[in-house]
Amino acid sequence: MEAYAPGSVTAVFAPAESGDESRGASVAIEDGVVASVASADRRVVTLDGDETSFEPVELLLEDLDVTARVDLTAQVPVGCGFGASGAATLATALAVDERFGLGHAREELVEAAHRAEVAAGTGLGDVFIQSMGGLVTSYGDGIERHDRDDPVEYVSFGGMATSDALGDADLMADVERVGGTVLDDLPADPSLPYLTTRAWEFAREIGLPTDRVRDAVAEVEAAGGAASMAMLGETVFAVGVEGVLDERTRVASEGARLR
Fold this sequence. Notes:
CATH architecture: 2-Layer Sandwich
CATH class: Alpha Beta
Structural class: alpha+beta
CATH topology: Ribosomal Protein S5, domain 2
Number of strands: 12
Number of domains: 1
Shape: globular
Largest sheet: 8 strands, mixed
Radius of gyration: 17 Å
């Protein structure tokens, strides 16, 4: 049984003590992760053909009390700000539920994937974006989905350890302060170019962009587009350009689903 979940790029966020109260603005992209689930006599997870330790998926299998083999195929770099761990975990939840006839409601499976992500320290809310598709905003009092179909280009130079960043008290204090200000200023229905421009202000003020990220953003801006840094990864995403960055996808109009 196979399921797919789109990737997601978080443009700006402001964490809270409770992950469910964190605020942010993110976009789901069509490049994502496919999970293939089969019966097995022990829990096994592979990523692009190689057996691996993938903690959120393993925690999800424990939570659902299932022993299975999960083969993950990633269309985006893992650990580079595309929400790959969330996509993998959510796709696994959908496939496991169908394969073993667990009968859980979709909302229950999304929550189970969310719990696994938070427990593993690999994400705060990616699975909600990946379940809904589109541009998703959260202001701490609920999640709102906005229909979008913008083409998105991206390039990734490497990853950042999400758990390390989330555990850095000084960095998170800056993120909460600056991210909160940006989110307070966003219109109710932001365009993706406007959000991306504000996200770049956010990224620069918290001091995360590397020289390679700054150079890629400058290249996009010189071509008339808007670009920023994915949270959290040494990755640049852009809108309003064509053929400037290495990869091209678009906003995912649908969320995670069985294949």
